[in-house]
Amino acid sequence: MKDLNKLYFTLCTLAVLSLKVNVTFGDTLKVCKTCDYTSVKQAVKQAKPGETVLIESGVYQEYGIEINKPLTVLGRNNPVIDGNYKGQIFTVTASNVTIEGLTIKNIATSYRHDDAAIRVVEQSNVRILNNTILNTFFGIYLQYSDNCVVKGNVVTGKDVTGLNESSLGNAIHLWYCDNAVISNNKVKGHRDGIYLEFVKDSEVKNNLSQHNLRYGLHFMFSDRNVYTHNIFRENGAGVAVMYTRDIRMEHNTFENNWGAAAYGLLLKDISNSVIYNNRFSRNTTAIYMESSSRLDIQRNNFDRNGWAVRLLSSCTDDVFKFNNFTGNSFDVSTNSDSQLNHFENNYWDKYSGYDLNKDQVGDVPYRPVSLYSMLVERVPPSVMFMRSFMVDMLDNIEKVLPSFIPENLVDEKPLMSKIDHDNDRKLAQVLR
Amino acid sequence: MSKIIKYVFYDIIRNKIVLAYTLFLLLLSIGLFNLGGSPDKAVLSLLNLVLLTVPLISIVFATTHFYNSYEFIELLVAQPINRKKIFMSEYLGVAGSLSGAFIVGVGVPVLLFGASLTGFYLLLTGVFITFIFVALAFLASVITRDKAKGIGIALLLWFYFALIYDGIVLFILYAFADYPLENATLAMTAMNPVDLGRIIVLLNLDVSALMGYTGALYKSILGSLWGIGLAFGLLLLWILVPILSSRSIFSKRDL
């Protein structure tokens, strides 16, 4: 038994060593019109593990390139690989592969294969860097692949207006991939910009996701992920995140997600997560929360949204602190009387209280839910009476004598002036 | 006809109420634009002003003016002038001077501080509302010879359109919440010029909220250029119906 273990160990060491040797002494196979290799497929086939396939500029009409050994596929001077709508272009079936600097385009919609520009199948340490992917069904598709890096890619689909959800793929699609890093990508014109399912301990940062038919970012069952400095703009239904815990969302921008079912951020069954320093601007609903608990929502800006926060009664123990609510048609709306969430020290531009002791905190509690928002929740067509004098009057009467609006949904310490999140640290510390 | 309009116009300007009205609007608008942070917010407050104060002042002023110039009208009727002409010039004189006051009072500040499409719609709505409520005032005035009664009817009309109507509709919507009410709501808002005016401005102001849910439906119906045209067409109808009916009452009535 011990011997067997030893044997294994030796074998493994040998394998690693050989790999290393290959990497260090890796040769370069050039691909161009006048080189030894005129097609990428040919070069990839001939290359030994650890070698580099260098593709010079030119247009290569190829598809079905399988990378089944650790290679670096590098594009120089922007080579274009045109799939001509015939099938998948790169299929990676080996670990430690790098694909960099290519323009990959033209993949047909395929309902049976989910064809992608680059697909990684059950591998690890694959790096997909600085590629431009145009007009594909799926852009980058990773399945059962850990420790991968998707960085600096531009994935552009088509104009999605009037298209069907099922006729489009996702720009960056990860399925059962842990420890992934997705950064600095620009994606647009797909079904979902970035789609993560069963992706854990990963990092999504500095991406720009816009003009997608469904969600800019979509993740499910993806715990312990970090999302920072991303921009999600003008997506059909905004950003949706579901069935997940322990996530961090910071410094993201959600803007112009308009539509009957569009959300800046839709949270469903999310728990133990933090949402800090994000900006929500001009969304139909900035944050929609359903069955989400123990969320910490702090220092966000909600500006000119239809609904800043729609908090369903299934949410518990969520904390809203130091957020700015400005110019929203409705600050908070909810569907029930019971409220188990906590609002404190937010700035509400509709607040009309006073501050006698000048400690920057209003002396009268603010109730962000108006009677009218409850009416709209119950009878949607009454939205047409917004800003009617009758509605204002009802709201004011209700504010003086609350009887319909949830009594516990109240900010006991509303702030008197807007918080400048970068500079008002001192104030926040005092209040804390 | 233009001679009579001119006379009515000078008469109104001379009694200084319209000047005071202009000044009031001007001060209020400038104040709102300088007070509030964003021009959007000021336009919003102005919207409330346009939808409440403008109808009230238009309807009360027009009614009192009509009764006060009764003798002048009687004098004119004795002349060989068509009654319809007398009535229409009386109407155009009053409505024209009031909307002139509105354009100067609100239009100039809007142009200066918050010139936008929303501001333009706000102005147009205000002018239409003025014309509509002066027409309603004239209708109230020709219905009864009694000045107190006439002003009473005018005030009731204002109260109904500015306040009660929305309450009734909201109540109906609440009571019939289980039914699809989208088109019914649309029809009901068309029955009130104040609501129509409000929605025209709203569709530009609260876009984010109105893009959700049923709002999207209204946005698609009223948000397009065609829809805005339709809304203003309805407002035009709201001018024509009361003024034409009161004109025919006036021309038949024993003065």
**What oligomeric arrangement do these chains adopt?**
heterodimer
Main sheet summary of chain A: 25 strands, parallel
User: What sort of overall outline of chain B do the alpha carbons produce when their principal axes are compared?
Assistant: globular
Quantity of strands of chain A, as a count: 38
What would you call the structural class of chain A? mainly beta
DSSP helical segment count of chain A: 5
Mean pLDDT of chain A: 87
Reported for the largest beta sheet of chain B, the result is: none
Biggest interface: A-B, 33 and 39 residues
The total of beta strands of chain B comes to 0
Set down the secondary structure blueprint.
The complex is a heterodimer of chains A (432) and B (255).
Chain A (H helix, E strand, L loop, with lengths): L1 H23 L3 E4 L8 H7 L5 E4 L3 E3 L3 E3 L4 E4 L4 E3 L7 E3 L5 E3 L2 E3 L10 E6 L5 E3 L2 E3 L3 E6 L5 E3 L2 E3 L15 E4 L5 E3 L2 E3 L5 E4 L5 E3 L2 E3 L6 E4 L5 E3 L2 E3 L4 E8 L2 E3 L2 E3 L7 E14 L2 E3 L3 E6 L2 E6 L2 E3 L3 E5 L4 E6 L2 E3 L3 E5 L5 E5 L2 E2 L22 H8 L10 H12 L24 H7 L1
Parallel strand pairs in A: 1-2, 2-5, 3-6, 4-7, 5-8, 6-9, 7-10, 8-11, 9-12, 10-13, 11-14, 12-15, 13-16, 14-17, 15-18, 16-19, 17-20, 18-21, 19-22, 20-23, 21-24, 22-25, 23-26, 24-27, 25-28, 26-28, 27-29, 28-30, 28-31, 29-32, 30-33, 31-34, 32-35, 33-36, 34-37, 35-38
Chain B lengths: L1 H13 L2 H19 L3 H30 L1 H9 L4 H31 L3 H27 L3 H29 L6 H9 L2 H13 L1 H4 L4 H8 L2 H28 L3
Helix pairs in contact in B: 1-5, 2-3, 2-5, 3-5, 3-6, 3-7, 3-9, 5-6, 5-12, 6-7, 6-9, 6-12, 9-12
Key features of this structure:
heterodimer, A: 432 residues, Pectate Lyase C-like, 2 domains, 13-stranded parallel beta sheet, 5 helices, 38 strands, B: 255 residues, mainly alpha, 0% strand
Task: Describe the 3D structure.
The complex is a heterodimer of chains A (432) and B (255). Chain A has 432 residues and is mainly beta. Chain A has 5 helices and 38 strands. Chain A folds into 2 domains: 26-235, Pectate Lyase C-like (3 Solenoid); 237-369 and 406-432, no CATH class. Chain A has a 25-stranded parallel β-sheet that branches. In chain A, strand 1 (28-31), helix 2 and strand 2 form a beta-alpha-beta unit. Chain B has 255 residues and is mainly alpha-helical. Chain B has one domain. Chain B has helices spanning 2-14, 17-35, 39-68, 70-78, 83-113, 117-143, 147-175, 182-190, 193-205, 207-210, 215-222, 225-252. The model of chain B has no long low-confidence stretch (mean pLDDT 86). The interface between A and B is large, with 33 and 39 residues.
